[in-house]
Design brief:
By secondary structure, the chain is α/β, with parallel strands linked by helices. 39% of the residues lie in helices and 18% in strands. The strands form two sheets. It has a seven-stranded mixed sheet. A two-stranded antiparallel sheet has the order 1-8. The structure holds S-adenosylmethionine (SAM). S-adenosylmethionine binds next to strand 1, helix 3 and strand 3.
């Protein structure tokens, strides 16, 4: 490799050389801005012992920078046309492994055990395919991998929803699903011109710093998330109305009201005003009634 792949000229030349056209259906908007790429890689704070999982390497724009700094890079690409291009580009890099797979189907624990050493400083970096951002992030967070951080390019609106705090319009069940496991922050806005072709939406880099333990303790995780989803059911409705419409039968209405009061959560509040700690308190208070 001589020149950076992440330039309009090199990207177009590589696509032409291999006779490739980009697939919108796979979210193929390739990064062609070397400054954005540099900033994204800096955010990873790669240590000497860094192991990076990249999702959707495309023709290797980000992979190339990761390979320069990390001890090991495992890149997972779904598009079989790009796999030989990547294998050729990284033929001399024994520490770069290209896996041809759909990341949503892949057993990430198995990959991590096979490719990284125990105790390796593990993280995920990606310019994500936007059509499946949320399932990918939730899969990573539920995977049980011991990741230090996840740094990803996503649609700006999704980054805002994930990083939103209580009281903000964008705060919702996705914010809580992610912030339960990670500290979330939008760290960089990225213009459409940084990609080939330009996407229709604005982009941003999202940084998730994975917590060693979930931010709150709950006795029944699936029920906690059920309570969160039910509470946000219809945003204009109060917490009480959402819970009694979406989660509990009519005959338990009064029991729900008194449990909310005893947990010191005013039933007339709206879900978007509750912190994660309050949702945890709420789900603990409602758990016994739910199990009846
Ligand atoms: N990393 C490259 C870059 O920044 O130029 C490409 C990023 S492009 C936004 C997203 C990439 O994800 C594409 O290469 C696409 O083929 C790949 N992709 C889409 N769906 C995927 C999936 N389910 N599993 C793995 N890769 C996927």
């Amino acid at each position: 490799m001589t020149k950076s792949i992440a330039t309009p000229y090199r990207t177009k030349a590589l696509l032409q050389k291999h006779g490739l056209s980009l697939k919108k259906s796979l979210g193929q908007n390739f990064l062609i801005d070397a400054n954005v790429l540099r900033n994204l890689v800096e955010l990873l704070e790669l240590s000497e012992n860094a192991g990076v999982i990249e999702i959707g390497p495309g023709i290797g724009a980000l992979t190339e920078s990761l390979a320069e700094k990390a001890r090991k890079v495992v890149a997972v690409e779904i598009d079989g046309r790009l796999v030989p291009v990547l294998r050729e580009a990284f033929a001399d890099c024994r520490h770069v492994k290209i896996i041809h797979a759909d990341v949503l189907e892949l057993d990430l624990q198995e990959v991590a055990e096979a490719e990284f050493s125990p105790g390796q400083d593990l993280m995920v970096a990606a310019n994500l395919p936007y059509y499946i951002t949320t399932p990918i992030l939730l899969k990573l967070l539920h995977s049980g991998l011991s990741l230090r951080s996840i740094i990803v390019m996503v649609q700006k609106e999704v980054a805002d929803r994930i990083a939103a705090q209580p009281g903000h319009k964008a705060y919702g069940s996705l914010s809580i699903a992610v912030q339960y496991y990670a500290e979330a922050e939008t760290v960089m806005q990225v213009p459409k011109s940084a990609f080939l072709p330009n996407p229709n939406v604005d982009s941003a880099v999202l940084r998730l710093r994975i917590r060693s333990n979930p931010v709150v303790h709950v006795n029944d995780e699936p029920f906690f998330f059920e309570v969160v989803r039910a509470s946000f059911g219809q945003r204009r409705k109060t917490l009480f109305n959402n819970l009694t419409h979406n989660l509990f039968p009519r005959e338990q209405k009064e029991a729900v009201r008194s449990l909310l009061n005893s947990a010191d959560i005013e039933p007339g509040r709206r879900a978007e005003t509750l912190s994660i700690a309050e949702f945890a308190r709420l789900s603990e208070a409602l758990l016994e009634l739910h199990r009846q």
